Amino acid sequence: MLSDFAKKNLIKQQYRFVGNHSAVKVCLWTRKFLRNEGGCYKFTFYGIRSHQCLQMTTSMFCANRCTFCWRGQKAPVSKDWYGPIDDPKHIVEHAIDEQIGLLQGMGGNPKVPKKLHRSWEDVRHVALSLTGEPITYPRMNEILDEFHRRKISTFLVTNGQYPEQMEKVKNVTQMYISVDAPNKKLLKKIDRPLFDDYYERLLKCLDIMAKKKYRSTIRLTIIKGQNDSDLEGYKELIERGKPDFIEVKGYVHVGVSIRILKKENMPYHAYVSEFAKKLEKIMLDYEIVDDHKPSRVILFIRKDKKQYRFIDFQKFFELSQKKEVAMEDYGSSRMKPN
After folding, report:
1. Which of 276, 261, 234 shows the shortest CA–CA distance to 69?
2. Model confidence, pTM
3. Which residue range forms the structural domain that includes residue 197?
4. Closest CA to 128 of 174, 65, 179
5. Is residue 338 part of a domain?
6. What pLDDT, in 10s, does the model give residues 283-302?
7. Does some domain include residue 337?
């Protein structure tokens, strides 16, 4: 999937490859949490402990070339899966090994409290969103089951271009769709998709999200002066997907995106907050319940789901082995450790 040159560059950037198509990279917030410098928005919003979070992907390729993406060549262009398909257990085991290896140096960091020493070896959550389009991995249900069997919760992010693969997902702790623009014309400009029927694919994914029972989120990445208009368009797409949560976050001017967008396109938290408040006024079924200023992200929740905001991880792991879970089965009004 990647040239030797690309792999060498990624290794220098602290990526680690697992098998033929998966990769791991330690999140900035994992190290920050270990140094007592605070947790990421997932910790604030849902109770995911940042120092025990594995950031990875099961597929390096992507069918979009989003203007705001900082990853560049890290996600090779492709519509369809190609090449070998690695075993789910192999991916999980070696992804955890690579994460532990990348964090070994934290043991000698004087800022890391003794109570957190080696805690990163006990991975309790995986964010399947590092780069590429992880949902295209043909054995996605098997790898999700393997994570859940190990009592590792799962957040899976998709760009809404693979409805058939999304339909197949049986159980995931929380599913995300990135909705990067409020209408067809802007989506083509922002995401630069490979598929001609890119918009129809997104709509199909939103329809699938509306039917699924597990926790669901629509994420909006706001680029100032690019996709911060047509609130009614966003409203229509969100209502079609009927997510439990909406995350509105600001674009960050880093990586390859600086070749396409300007620094002025990066909104600060106040701008993102103002946009979110305008959206809240027309999203009658949702309300803003939290924000995370360092990440420039605002959290909405469906008003009828407020009592299920947090996650009862033990219930999720128990039930996900027996049936297709619903948000109400493992939601909690209180933050519980995972």
Report:
1. 261
2. 0.95
3. 4-332
4. 174
5. no
6. 999 999 999 999 999 999 99
7. no
